[in-house]
Write a structure and sequence with these properties.
Strand order of the largest sheet: 27-28-29-33-32-31-30
Shape: elongated
Distance between the termini: 88 Å
Strand content: 25-35%
Number of strands: 37
Helix content: 25-40%
Structural class: alpha+beta
Length: 777
């Protein structure tokens, strides 16, 4: 952002730019207020400039009369002019020519535009508004993102005055004294202002002010206005349009002037746009508004993309006889989205994105009218100002002097803290108690960045000078932290990568909605970003599986087999709470052959063995996501708690992702994996007596879980120390049965088994198997 120091000092009382050391001021500003990108000196030799009136035009030459020098001169015709036009003439040695921007110290090509000027100033007094020496300062925009009050010269002047210990010119001296009538949502028409102003959605538009000027003459820009707008890289158009831009750069509040003829119905409404409705803009382009845009309408159709750019239909031109002034306050998020959507980033939209002071809606119009009066621009019929929308209220923050000193770290006198805050136009009331001194601080509405006591402390601290703070090494007691979760996560990822031969994938924690449409799945209970990455990346994920399916879809032709895993966070909303969880997901995909359920189960079980989880694979009782095979999926439970699901991918679903193949997937509760503490294994003295290894084989119904059989055999006798599935076999003719062979080990710590004892345990195991529906083979 560019700032003219001469313009800044227009707002400071009893001190001029020529009276201060600019290097010292800018150095202090850089340390206290905002980071500077640089500055340049602007010099204008006003002695060689004068205003000339065009008296005669020929093909190549233009004759002008210069009242200041009482002289006729002839200049080369460079751009079209008309008789009686006013132009700025530059005298170079014995020749005369149209003044260029360079004559005003501005690095810009082309001649200075045709101007207008009050008659009493043409003879030379107009130069009082042009600075011979100025400094153009460039401020880093990022440093001002939180300070909407500093996006105008008056806001910068407030900081400069506080640095210099100077006084600001009171606001009432730079504003007109028009009557302001306030309304909540809709105004009433009156004799002085026939417009009925309505805000349809206060969430989009907080406040808006309007004023009708019944008679006005549009003319070329004033020379000092054109010169200052040139410094800001702003194009000059006409006196009225340039004056709205001047006000914006002056106080930081955008405003707009409409040709009053478009408001025949005397209705001005701020509303949502209608999808697809065309709106020709001032830059010559036509956009199609959306229902997320905020537009200003005349009761029939939109005449402005609110807060961004006006429409062609309401353009102020040389034919304009009456105008309507508008200045509002719009939702910064809405402005940013509309600006990005339509690719229309303007000086106005940049300022509205920073959320400026809502109460400045009337200030801008009062400033505009005051400048009309000050610079003798003719108009009639400017009556009351209509303001619709509730005004912003000042916040009050109480902070003790003791807390302020403790936070800053150096002694701060009571009067210094109060003085600094008052210099920045905070209201300060000091209250003394028995043990402390409190400041009751009223935060002006233009300071949208101040909300908590620490913000007040920062305002005092930056003027005390951060470079005055004592250099002290921070004291931090070193306390050992529990890194169990970190080590366990590293072990889990390490096992997935090397033990299971998988590749880790990392994705954004957002759903790709284009891919969700491909798999024909819509997530439930999702959370949407307020400022999305894009139109199709705005929902926080509730599961990791779509990421892995997309990895298969993208890489299915590049690899003979795809085995990958992802560790990430998911979010979902439960009632009024937002729940964040960790998840581990895996996929084993083979494009050419079936992925065996039990082979995959055995591999996944090695992860559970590594983390020492007693996982039981049960038949799911809840409705599954569409990617799980309904008959080949297991609910994984630990001590009765479901920690995830594992199983084959439904073939119909997989066809949406891959052309062919088969897959096995797993999704687990990552928080449970990290937090679960396995039971401590108490060391036992091994028995010196021989173990006996036995087998039992039986035909079981297919719906009998292996884990249930293992658990039942282990409970037969305390001397059964180990049970595991040794073999599984199925035949088509067995239909709903399968052969399971279990190996179990028995051991007695006190003695060697007798044959009768072994036979007794075997009989108990066989009886247990039969009770579970097994037929001993």
């Amino acid at each position: 952002m560019k700032v003219s120091l001469a313009w800044v000092f227009d707002h400071i009382k009893d001190i001029r730019l020529t009276q201060i050391n600019v290097d010292d001021l800018l150095s202090s500003f850089n340390e206290i207020s905002s980071e500077l990108d640089g500055f340049e000196k602007i010099e204008c030799n006003k002695d060689i400039l004068a205003i000339g009136r065009v008296t005669k035009i020929s093909n190549n030459e233009t004759e002008c009369f210069i009242p200041e020098w009482k002289k006729e001169c002839t200049i080369t015709t460079q751009t079209p002019v008309n008789l009686n036009d006013l132009v700025v003439i530059a005298k170079e040695q014995r020749t005369y020519k149209r003044a260029t921007w360079h004559h005003f110290g501005i690095q810009r090509d082309g001649v200075f535009p045709v101007i207008s000027c009050p008659e009493h100033l043409i003879a030379g007094d107009w130069k009082q508004y042009i600075s011979s020496v100025d400094y153009l300062v460039t401020i880093d925009n990022k440093a001002l993102s939180h300070r909407p009050d500093m996006w105008g010269h008056r806001g910068i002047a407030r900081e400069v005055a506080a640095i210099l210990g100077a006084t600001m010119i009171p606001e009432e001296r730079i504003l007109s004294q028009n009557i302001i009538k306030n309304y909540e949502n809709k105004s009433l028409a009156s004799k002085d202002n026939p417009l009925v102003v309505t805000i349809k959605d206060p969430q989009q538009c907080t406040r808006i002010a309007c004023c009708a000027i019944a008679s006005i003459h549009n003319q070329p820009s004033l020379p000092w206005v054109a010169q200052r707008l040139g410094l800001m890289d702003c194009k000059t158009i006409s006196a009225l349009v340039d004056l709205t831009n001047y006000v914006m750069f002056d106080i930081g509040q955008p405003m707009h002037a409409f040709d009053a003829s478009i408001f025949e119905s005397h209705t001005l409404t701020i509303d949502h746009g209608n999808d697809g409705e065309p709106l020709p803009l001032l830059d010559g382009t036509t956009i199609k508004v959306t229902n997320t845009d905020c537009v200003i309408t005349n009761g029939r159709h939109p005449v402005s993309l609110a807060g961004i750019m006006g429409g062609q239909q309401g353009e102020v031109s040389e034919r304009t006889k009456a105008i309507v002034l508008e200045s509002g306050n719009f939702n910064p998020i809405m402005i940013r989205k509309s600006s990005a959507l339509h690719k229309k980033r303007t000086e106005a939209s940049v300022r509205f994105e920073k959320n400026p002071d809502p109460n400045q809606n009337t200030t801008a119009i009062l400033r505009f009218v005051h400048l009309l009066d000050t610079w003798s621009l003719p108009y009639q019929g400017c009556g009351e100002i209509t303001s619709v929308g509730l005004p912003a209220k000042e916040e009050t923050i109480t902070i003790s002097h003791e807390k302020l000193v403790k936070k800053i770290g150096i002694p701060v006198p009571n009067d210094t803290a109060a003085k600094r805050l008052k210099a920045l136009q905070f209201g300060v009331i000091e209250k003394q108690h028995a043990h402390q001194n409190d400041y009751i601080v009223s935060v002006p509405t233009f300071r949208r960045d101040i909300h908590i006591p620490e913000d007040i402390i920062e305002e005092v601290a930056r003027f005390c000078g951060y470079n005055t703070l004592p250099q002290q090494v921070p004291h931090r007691p070193m306390i050992a932290t529990d890194n169990t979760r970190t080590l366990k996560l590293h072990a889990i990822k390490n096992h997935c990568a090397f033990g299971l031969n998988m590749t880790e994938v990392v994705n954004y924690n957002l759903f790709d909605e284009d891919f969700l449409r491909t798999i024909n799945w819509k997530p439930q209970h999702t959370l949407a970003l307020i400022n999305p990455v894009s139109e199709t990346w705005k929902l926080l994920i509730t599961t990791l599986m779509p990421h892995l399916f997309k990895a298969v879809s993208v890489n299915q032709y590049e690899h003979q087999e795809i085995r990958c895993f992802e560790w990430g966070k998911i979010w979902h909303q439960h009632q009024d709470k937002i729940i964040e969880q960790n998840r581990l997901a895996m996929i084993m995909y083979n494009p050419d052959k079936a992925v065996d359920f039990y082979t995959a189960k055995t591999q996944v079980a090695t992860l559970f063995d590594m983390v020492k989880f007693p996982v039981i694979w049960n038949k799911p009782t809840e409705q599954l996501e569409p990617w799980f095979h309904p008959h080949q999926t297991a609910a994984l439970t630990v001590n009765g708690t479901i920690i995830g699901y594992a199983g084959k991918v439904d073939p119909a679903f997989l066809k949406l992702v891959a052309e062919k193949g088969d897959a096995f997937i797993v999704e687990l509760d990552g928080d449970f994996l990290l937090q679960h503490k396995p039971a401590l294994i108490q060391p036992e003295t091994p028995s010196k007596y021989q173990r006996v290894h036995l087998d039992v084989s039986a035909l079981f119904p297919s719906d009998v879980p292996v884990a249930r059989v293992e658990e039942a055999i282990a409970m037969v006798d305390a001397r059964v120390i180990n049970v595991y599935l040794m073999d599984l076999f199925e035949k088509p003719e067995w239909k709903h049965q399968r052969s399971l062979t279990f190996h179990y080990v028995i051991n007695d710590k006190e003695k060697t088994f007798t044959k009768e004892e072994i036979d007794d345990i075997v009989n108990q195991v066989n009886t247990t198997v039969k009770k579970l529906g097994g037929v001993i083979r």
